[in-house]
Amino acid sequence: MFNINLKRFLIYNSRKLFTKKPNYVNDSNFEFVNSLRKNGFYKKKEFSKKNILANEIITQFEKIPNIELQNICKANKNNFERYGYRSKITNLFDKKLLYEYANQRIFIENFEQYFGLKPKVRLISVWIDYPTDNKERDSQIFHRDYDDVFLTKTFLCLTDINYDNGPFQFIPKSHIAPWDKKLDTLNNKPTFMTAEKGDLYMADTNGFHRGTKLKKNFRCLVNVHYVSERPMTGFPDKIIN
């Protein structure tokens, strides 16, 4: 009992109880859903090659001078504030393009099947993460998100991601009982999400996850949050941020 977050247990199960369950038989008709349901995460290699909007975002990113990105990293190397290893670069992208990308049918239809209800986009953001002199902290430590009972986050990779520049990690199946406080990495080893530019990965971040601390270089991602119409943390004033 001591390993259970009782409040989260009650909220999660009451929301699920009073929400129409998805027709699980149809899961196989949706590309992302089987893996999300079973493991809590999914990865799609070369997503941008067949997705026009993702490709347009990467094209915009490639027009940003590399020196500008490096200067952002250098300016924040000794930032001790929360998430001091990350800066938002959303303002360097076309907002209409980001909105259209996040609201594509492929995302909305897959997450509607996964949730059992119509998903809403809660947040669209573009990040650059970089090495700092600080210890692991904040989202670099395994944690669960509390945005909503119905929650999926997608990450479009704008750079290659290897073991040196902060790959995402997820504990498989840890999304199934999100009230469990016990972190078991011995019997349930974390999955590393290394990737190439243009790959897409996603996770039900009710499960244990983290973005590992960068050793060198930087990583850039388009991050989109999908929730129910009544997320536990509400909606921000600006969805594109």
Please supply descriptive tags for the structure shown above.
241 residues; alpha+beta; Jelly Rolls; six-stranded antiparallel beta sheet; three-stranded antiparallel beta sheet; 7 helices; globular
Polypeptide structure, described:
The model has no long low-confidence stretch (mean pLDDT 93). The chain has one domain (30-179, 199-227): Jelly Rolls (Sandwich), CATH 2.60.120.620. The chain has 241 residues and is of the alpha+beta class. The strands form 2 sheets. It has a 6-stranded antiparallel sheet with strand order 1-7-4-9-3-2. A 3-stranded antiparallel sheet has the order 6-5-8, with no helix packed on it. It has helices spanning 6-17, 33-39, 47-50, 52-62, 66-75, 95-102, 105-115, and strands spanning 41-44, 86-88, 120-129, 151-157, 168-170, 191-193, 200-203, 209-211, 219-227. Helix 4 (52-62) runs antiparallel to helix 6 (95-102). The N and C termini lie far apart (39 Å). The longest helix has 12 residues, at 6-17. The protein contains 7 helices and 9 strands; from the N terminus they run ααβαααβααβββββββ.
Report mean pLDDT, rounded to a whole number. 93
* CATH level-3 fold name: Jelly Rolls
Rg, Cα atoms, Å: 18 Å
So, the CATH homologous superfamily? q2cbj1_9rhob like domain
User: CATH first level: which class?
Assistant: Mainly Beta
Low-confidence spans? none
Biggest sheet architecture: 6 strands, antiparallel
Number of domains: 1
Strand content: 15-25%
> What share of residues is helical?
25-40%
Cα(first) to Cα(last) distance is 39 Å
CATH architecture: Sandwich
Strand order of the largest sheet: 1-7-4-9-3-2
Order of H and E elements: HHEHHHEHHEEEEEEE
The number of distinct helices, counting runs of at least 4 residues, comes to 7
